[in-house]
Amino acid sequence: MSAPTGAGPASAGYGRVFAVPEFRAVFAAHVLSMLGVIVSEIALSVLVYDLTRSPLLSALTFALGFLPYAVGGTLLAPVADRFPARGVLVGCDVVCAGCVALMTVPGTGIGLLLALRCALAVVSPVFSGTRMATLADVLGDGDLFVLGRSLLRIVAQSALLVGYGLGGLLLTAVSPRHALLITVGTFLASAALLRCGTRHRPARTRRGADTPPGPRALPTDRRVRVLLLMFWIPSAFSVVPEALAAPYADELGSGSVGLGLLMCALPVGTVAGELFAGARLGPKARERIALPLLCLTLLPYLGYALRPGLAASLVLLLLSGAGSAYTLGLDQWFVRAVPRELRGRAMTVLQAGLMTVQGVGMVLTGVAAQTVGLRTAVAGAGVTGVLCCCGLAMAARATEKEPGAEKRPKAETGLPGI
User: How far is residue 109's CA from residue 281's CA, in Å, rounded to a whole number?
Assistant: First the structure.
């Protein structure tokens, strides 16, 4: 079975991705894992607050979902390549299920609850990176990989929209510890799907291979470094309106309804942009628009300088979210630039970096808003972000003709392992 490589409509739809049985298993497992993560975050936050009545500790529970990512991505990245991918994925799900199961034990102290939350966050980048690298094995290195990765991102964004609402409703019916038990079930179901629905593949790198750990094992050429920054830098700026949504809604006088709309607008725009680019554009077109969209995606934030109302703010956020469709072209460049034997750790470092810069971005956003005000902070993030993105686009242009930058792996013309 071979993958068409043309740019016509036949190559641009998501339906071909679901025709691959292994992808269906990975996709279903991803949905279950996302639901498990979101429900556990809500339930654990409520549980910590019920036990301590401390808003600080409840907020810290959420923050711990970001901070340990850098540790896991740096120290555990080699695991993604030095062990068979299926075993790593199943093992991560089982570890997560075990950690959450311990949270449900009556009498578990706050310190242990937070430590278990950290353990989940340390394991998460290894799981995400291994899964992304496995996608390239399942779907090939070409257009199907880009569409498959796009679908997983769409699930993640949609889960943010739906999952928190469903999690809140769930907690009106059951206690936080019972909600955590449901999470244990979702992680175990994900592990079962991956174990039974994907085939065994050997490790990409021999365990005794002479490769340095973590990010230092990645290629030292400028192309890979620039591509990583093209994922990370826009994300650091894009979280600014989300981090300021609550005080901004209060300033607008729009209440909880306005807050909900402001939190939803960016992910809705992201999902819409990815769906359009994935379903209506071919691979060549997606690569052509990647750099222009990169330069434009943060431009709507400048509109905050005009003191927009709720409706105008929602439009600005929708437009910015839609611009993130540049990542489809970027995905193709990244998988093409990284050697297969380093792909697992490269994806792990990529995911860890994304979460880390978003956490740092949120902290710096709070400092900026406290100093210069809400609207100025968002508009300033737009100006700085656009300048950074334009610089990255120029760097990408400069590196695309370097040796190996445009080399296409043989796997792009077929689907290995199907």
Answer: 52
Structure tokens at 102: 């311990």
Which of 32-41, 68-77, 280-289, 384-393 shows the lowest mean pLDDT across its residues? 68-77
Task: Name all domains of the chain by residue range, CATH numbers in brackets.
Answer: 17-204 (1.20.1250.20), 220-407 (1.20.1250.20)
Task: Work out the percent of the chain whose per-residue pLDDT is above 70.
Answer: 84
- d(Cα 274, Cα 155) in Å, to the nearest integer? 11
Q: Structure pTM?
A: 0.78
State how far the Cα of 335 lies from the Cα of 135, in Å rounded to an integer: 10
Single-letter amino acid, residue 223: R
- For residues 97 and 73, the answer to whether their CB atoms sit within 8 Å is no
pLDDT(292) > 80: yes
Which helix (DSSP H) or strand (DSSP E) does residue 124 occupy? helix 110-139
Query: Which is higher by pLDDT, 105 or 168?
Result: 105
CA distances from 335 to 170, 292, 347, 405 (A): 39, 20, 9, 11
